[in-house]
């Protein structure tokens, strides 16, 4: 979607008459149905003055096309400025200009990441040249009008308030490859910028190209398909087994027949392979040249999946990451804008009032905006009151949207070494559902132990890690989490404390939260359910805090409202003990089921520790 477009001639007149910001605002309100922020309006008014002088003095033809605030389809990203036209050889070109009002910046040791002053504090953000390059790459990957017509795209970053330093942080060695892809221009380099613009679009005739870009069909290019194929090829983590293959082929068969709107519900507990199927379906649908997005409400899960797939440069990650979206991204999407949307961990979808979500119901957003939508779900993994993702709710909305409903179940357990009996035993022991499973499971296939010391628990996990296994410590939300602004950006403060054992360790760091599961520092930090749900390890050590206790008189598990520290997770549940304990038990089931080969549990409540040990002993006697 183009927020504002005009010829260069019209653009120059609008700026001269001091109405460019007002013109952009009017179209913004008309197309997006909301007002821009004050800072956006000021940015337009300021930056467009600079761009008008650059364009005027570059001497490009008046019939070049100008786009301002081009909303990249299928994303929330907007390109600041695009100018389109022909070069001296009559080739079609467009130039993406990333405008920044920065005045200072600092390097980091992260690829394509810098720090700058925003909102009164120093924050990490992507390098301006990287931003410009990434927008151009999206056009090459997804806009059919660009990649089929031989249109040449260029990208630059223009920091019109920035005085170059010596040495200049933004031109540090680690950013040079990106700057080659998207040149960087500072305040004193306006003449160079003018020459660059004239070289590629100076001969004009750019309005038709604007139209083509705006109306280009959003489908994956062969280049993107080849990229995705290379990522999946030979990747053992995403090999389909048995009924996973059946589920995948069922999805592919239904999703590629788009005569009618379809909603596919894939049900399965921990370890049934929901994520393996969903990731393969993403690759398969992209190969079919369908405009497909992968959705996971949990940002940690999304980022770890990208890391596992790519393990390459930031540019490879960016191309892959553009296919992944958060669950609140579809509020403003058009009906059937996407060919397919795949939703992993659908039980974590949210409704009205959820943090940072502007809509009413994320399930409805997704079904509305896609021809085919696939929900991977486990009703027993809801962990917060605002988790509205249930099979019943998906069916209700699908019927309202006249979407055909298909259901599929994954049963066989691939996590926990195929120990379906173990997860049934966990359900029974945690009183989540009565499975009648007192016989346990094949102990040779899965190692489960109740440990009476948190120190010993940590020792076991570190032993597994040092022996080449993926292992992590996790804990229930029974300890507060010190904010990074209070000196805790990466686990400097040991919040998870068990005084009676003189034990303490930090929560997973804010800085590495989204990649904690695979980050080298993760072994010394305790993960929570929000950084682990959907992920898996070889071995997991679980600390059950005082939020979950056992009453030996009634023989029931109880929740302690005051000991449960997730304020959002317990909102409105102070006088609803049954609902609270159900959610907390689900949390611990999620944590316990993260291990594929083994799980070791320590309980702070002595009665709960004794209860689980007795239940475990009973399985050993049968």
TrEMBL record:
It holds the Pfam family SLFN-g3_helicase. This is Schlafen group 3-like DNA/RNA helicase domain-containing protein. Residues 261-605 form the Schlafen group 3-like DNA/RNA helicase domain. InterPro entries: P-loop_NTPase, SLFN_3-like_DNA/RNA_helicase. It comes from the Bacteria.
